[in-house]
Every structure is written in C-alpha cells, then in structure tokens.
User: Which sequence fits this backbone?
C-alpha cells in the first residue's frame, strides 16, 4: 500500500535523523574524538576514537533493540507492547527532565576505554530507547503486511531489522559527530568547541517524551 | 545549570591566555590569633578603575579561628572535559576551607562587590563523612570538587592518614573519600593532575602536630616532614608510584604540572634541604617505560647572616635559608615563579626546557635580616609567599604570610598583610609595580590569591595547545 510505503520511508528517515541528532550531541562523544586526535597529534588517533565511539553506540542500540525484537514475536500483544514501550520511553524522558544533575559516573571511565564510555553514555541518556517506538513502528508494518507468516519467520525478520535500524542509526550518528569533530580538529579550532557546545538536556528529554508519545499514538491508531 | 558553557572555561591553556584580563582578585584575609573572623578581600585589578589596587569589598565570616589558607573555584575549564560531556556549570562559587577549624565556606561571587555566604559545611560533617580534617587545596575535576586535607581523624588529626575527599559540584554535599588504594601515602599537602592522561600527583607537608603550634625544629632536623610525592591513577583512585626525593628534602609542597595536557612533566618545590639549607625545585616526568622519574633542577643557596639579625630558630645556623614555600607556572608553561619566603625574593625561571631552568628575573622584597622595602615606599612584612600569575602571564601577584604560627617564628615581631604585583618583561624579567601595594586592614594577614575568571593554579585543561 502507498500509505505503508510512505510511513516506512518516514520511519527510516526518523532512524537516520535520530542518528544525526545523537551525533551532534557532545554528550555522545564527539569532543572525545577531537581530544584523542589532538593528544596524539595524528588523524589516525581521531579516526580510531570515532570508530570506538561508534562501536559503543551500536552496542547500546542493540542492547535495547534486541530484547524488544524478541518480544515482537508475541503478535497478539503488539498494541500492549508498543504502548508499554512508549510509556517506558516517556518515563525516561521525564526522569531526565527532572534529574538534570551534572553526570559523575561517566567521568570515572578512563579516557582509554572509549567503547565502554560510549556504550554507557548512550545507555544513561536513553539513546537506545529513543529508537524503540520507531523500530516497533517498522516491525508493525511488517506484521500488517505479512500477518499470515509463521511466528518464527517473523521473529527472524524483526531481528534483522533491529540490526538494520541500529546500524543505520549509528552510521548517521557517526557521520554527524565525525563531521563536527573533523571540522573543529582540522578547520575551526578549539575556540569553537565551547562555542558549539549547547545544553541539550531539556531538548533531549523532550525528544524522548515526544517519541514515546508518538509510539503510543501510532500503536493505538493501528500503526 | 546554564545553556552554554561559562565563558571563562577554555578548551586549552592557549585560549585562556587570550581571554580578557582579570578585573578583580580575591585574597584570603587571615586573623593570625583568631581574635577576628577570617574573610575574603576583593581587590580591584582593573588599571582603568579609580579604585585600582585597593580593597573594594570584604566579606568576613560568622566564626573566628578558621585559619583560611588556600581556596578554589567550584568549576573551571575542566568542565569542558569530553568525558563528562556536560559543560554547563558556572565559575561562581569559591570553596574556602578553614585549616584550623575544618569548616568549609561556599561563597557566591556572582557580584564580586557583594560576596555572599552560600553554604557552610560544619567541621563535624567533614569528620563524619570523610574521616579527614583540616581541608586545604581545592581543585575542580571529573567527579566534582576535590579537596585535599592535612589531617586524619581524632583531635590532633593523627588518627589515620590525611587524604582527598570529593564534594558535589552543584549541591556542595560531601560525597566521601577519594582514595581506593593509597599505598605508602601517609601525609598530604597539595595535588594536581593531567586529566586526559589520567594521572594525579600529590605532595606532603607534615602531620598537624608538626605545624599547628609552629614548626617543630627537632622534627625538621631529624627529617620527619614529608619528602615524597605520589603518582596516582586518577580514575582508578590508586597510588601507582611513590617517589622519595630523599629524606633531607623536607616539605615537598606545591605540585605544578605543565598546563598543556600533552606534556607529561611538572615541578615540585622543596622548602628546605636540611643537609645544606638550600631551597630546591624538582622536575618530575614520565619516562619511556611509563614509570615516573625526577631530577633536582633548581637549587637556591642560603645567605650567610650575623646571628643578631636572625630569629632564635636560625641563630645557630648563621644563615638565612631561602625557604621555597610556593611555586607557580605560567599558562604557556614558560616561566616558573619561585617564592623564597626566607630570603625575601621572588624568582622567575625560564623553564621552556624543564630539565634546565634558567634564572631570568629576581625581585627582592622583605626577607629575614634584610626587610627590603617596596619601591613605592610601603612596608612588606615577612617575605614573598603565595604567588599567582595572570592568565596572560604579564602580571604576577603575591602576598606575604606563610602560616600564622610560622610567620611569628621566622619573623618575630613583624605584622601585616600585603599584596603586591610585578610586571613581566617581553623576554622575561620581573619588575615590581611601584604603585601597586595593597595594605590589608590591621589585624589581618594575606594568603592565597584567586583571580576572577581563573588563574594559573586553578584551571585544568582537557585539550592540548595547537
């Protein structure tokens, strides 16, 4: 159906956009890539740091999406699952809105362990959760199109799209963060580091609430 | 919580040097006998101001006998750390500990001409939450505000070793002890770090009975003050190496790492070498194999003096020891300032090659048996002591008191609090400004200086110079 095709395009667009959004947030690590490049005075060090940050982010996305992809096997509970997931995402947003303290535990991770840092930073910000309603929306369309398929086949399909969503999202995140890091490292200079650094706390928490609400709305509306 | 990082936070030391010059200085006012409350004096440092070089505001504490000494900001350029990913603090509060009372004041400097006490942490809370006493050096870092202490538990502070504790950088709640494995460390004084390289260095003065009622000459002559520095894995909170300079190097005090975090070296000042009364500075660095090394790179000789010109403590030696009580490194890592509190000299060394410092400037002022006057005509009690450098490296400020009871031992009969300033020449050299001479109100001495917007012993930078 045309409607499903355009919804699908919109959902994948959201996967990419959310990736770019995560990438530009300094909280997801692009300043670490700048720092790594400058400390070693080598482009390779920065590339390595960006790769490590991407790996950590990808793992954090999968850690959240995979359990949900398992649950999509419960076809009869689709609506409940999507409403529940939406509520969870909203709850995370509300929590981040209330608790806007300076994060301390991320600062305890040694600068040499960037994969772990990136994984924990994404988890602490609920970055993976932001993808869940989008991901479930994508799965929902698959179900609507092929609801006569065997449950097992469907699960395999949903598992594959979880990987796809995480990969596409992380690629967009890496590209966006990478562009800022390279621009500051190679062209703009460190003066722009503090200039481009905005407090996204409220916007970020609000995004979670918005995405969660969208998830619930589309579940109740049938998509 | 702010929308943008504080404009006084700088990614690199280089950027901090280019920032606008300081308009105000905050200096500790200390009542040596505890007869008046201690306080913070605000000094106008804007040469265009009509009140330039005068105390324009003072805030006195509600208690007496705190003994203010060192203090620091709640937040600095370390907030731009890429690891916290959250640079939205304000450089607004001064954390001012009393080293005698163990009380901590949090002072709001939003309006430098109307300082306000924001919070008081009572000594009981410090003891209960940390097991330490006599809080001293303040640094803002990855996990919040780090506070070094001079004493452990118990009335005389010898029940357990002193160490560092951490405070929340927003609520100013004490979180608890920093150390997870302190190794051989059993005394404490100063500390600083390199954030991207993830190491910390700490130093040693002595335990409270060795300083609170005055210098204990027998302890000094039997080398019982601190003579080691400790290297820590900053985030693992573990002592990875203790470096003993040798027991004759008594009182390893100020730790000054290079400001550019790409460099893995720094300096430590030694008050007195008991084998020859010299003052000394060691350069420490990380060797090829990752272990820490050090070498004595500056020595300053004592000056022979007739016994009648000396305080009783020194008469037997017939000499004035330099007494290197403070050192400070300019933000470009080029000049190291060395206060010789006994001699009455402020020295400037070019440390572009940290292994071969070159003396490039000397100012004589005060001093035991010499008492050099200020060129403006004012008195200068004691000798040059706590030194602070402007961010751009062009102005050097210092005060004169070391520590209440020690001032009286080395300079019996002298009294007064003074703050002066010297200009740095284009290629080194140091000249006192004859018009800059701040006399503190009677009954108050002067100690550490903090400059509005940061200075050369406050900010930790997370990105290397380019």
Assistant:
């Amino acid at each position: 159906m045309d409607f499903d095709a355009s919804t699908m395009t919109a959902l994948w667009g959201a996967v990419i956009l959310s990736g770019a959004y995560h990438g530009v947030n300094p909280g997801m690590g692009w300043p670490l890539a700048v720092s790594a490049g400058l400390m070693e005075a080598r482009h390779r060090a920065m590339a390595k740091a960006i790769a490590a940050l991407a790996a950590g982010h990808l793992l954090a996305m999968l850690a959240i999406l995979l359990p949900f992809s398992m649950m999509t096997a419960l076809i009869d509970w689709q609506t409940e699952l999507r409403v529940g997931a939406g509520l969870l995402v909203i709850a995370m947003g509300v929590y981040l809105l209330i608790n806007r303290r300076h994060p301390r535990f991320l600062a305890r991770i040694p600068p040499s362990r960037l994969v772990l840092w990136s994984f924990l930073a994404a988890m602490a910000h609920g970055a993976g959760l932001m993808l869940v309603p989008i991901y479930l929306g994508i799965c929902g369309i698959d179900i609507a199109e092929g609801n006569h398929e065997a449950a097992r086949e469907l699960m395999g399909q949903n598992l594959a799209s979880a990987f796809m969503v995480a990969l596409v999202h992380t690629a967009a995140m890496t590209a966006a963060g990478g562009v800022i890091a390279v621009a500051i490292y190679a062209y703009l200079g460190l003066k722009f580091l503090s200039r481009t650094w905005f407090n996204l706390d409220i916007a970020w928490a609000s995004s979670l609430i918005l995405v969660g609400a969208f998830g619930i709305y589309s579940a109740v509306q049938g998509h | 919580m702010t929308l943008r990082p504080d404009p006084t936070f700088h990614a690199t030391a280089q950027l901090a040097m280019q920032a606008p010059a300081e308009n105000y200085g905050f200096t500790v006012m200390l009542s040596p006998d505890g007869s008046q409350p201690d306080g913070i004096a605000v000094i106008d440092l804007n040469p265009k101001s009509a009140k330039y070089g005068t105390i324009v505001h003072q805030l006195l504490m509600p208690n007496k006998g705190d003994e203010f000494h060192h203090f620091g900001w709640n937040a600095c350029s370390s907030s731009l750390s890429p690891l916290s990913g959250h640079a939205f603090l304000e450089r607004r509060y001064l954390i001012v500990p009393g080293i005698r009372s163990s009380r901590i004041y949090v002072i709001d400097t939003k309006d430098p001409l109307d300082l306000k006490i924001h919070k008081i942490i009572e000594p009981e809370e410090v003891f209960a939450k940390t097991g330490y006493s006599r809080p001293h050096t303040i640094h803002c870092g990855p996990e919040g505000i780090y506070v070094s202490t001079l004493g452990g538990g118990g009335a005389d502070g010898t029940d357990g070793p002193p160490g560092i504790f951490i405070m929340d950088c927003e609520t100013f709640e004490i979180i608890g002890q920093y150390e997870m494995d302190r190794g051989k460390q059993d005394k404490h004084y100063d500390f600083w770090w390199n954030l991207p390289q993830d190491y910390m260095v700490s130093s040693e003065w002595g335990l409270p009975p060795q300083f609170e009622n005055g210098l204990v000459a027998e302890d000094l002559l039997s080398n019982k003050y601190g003579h080691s520095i400790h290297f820590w894995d900053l985030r693992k909170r573990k002592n990875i190496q203790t470096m003993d300079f040798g027991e004759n190097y008594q009182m390893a005090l100020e730790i000054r790492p290079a400001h550019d975090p790409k460099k893995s070296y720094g300096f430590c000042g030694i008050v007195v070498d008991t084998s020859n009364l010299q003052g000394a500075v060691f350069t420490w660095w990380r060797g090829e194999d990752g272990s820490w090394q050090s070498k004595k790179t500056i020595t300053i000789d004592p000056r022979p003096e007739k016994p009648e010109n000396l305080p009783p403590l020194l008469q037997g030696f017939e000499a004035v020891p330099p007494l290197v009580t403070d050192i400070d490194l300019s933000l470009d890592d080029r000049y190291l300032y060395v206060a010789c509190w006994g001699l009455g000299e402020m020295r400037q060394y070019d440390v572009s090659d940290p292994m071969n410092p070159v003396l490039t400037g000397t100012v004589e002022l005060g001093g035991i048996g010499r008492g050099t006057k200020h060129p403006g005509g004012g008195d200068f009690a004691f000798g040059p002591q706590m030194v602070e450098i402007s961010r751009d490296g062009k102005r050097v400020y210092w005060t004169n008191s070391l520590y209440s009871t020690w001032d009286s031992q080395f300079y019996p009969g002298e009294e007064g609090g003074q703050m002066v300033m010297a200009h740095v020449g284009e290629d080194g050299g140091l000249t006192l400004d004859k018009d800059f001479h701040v006399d503190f109100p009677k009954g108050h001495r002067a100690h550490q200086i903090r400059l509005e917007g940061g200075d050369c012993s406050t900010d930790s930078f997370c990105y290397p110079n380019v």
Remarks:
- Chain B has a mean pLDDT of 96.
- Residues 13-451 of chain B form a domain with the Methylamine Dehydrogenase; Chain H fold (CATH 2.130.10.10).
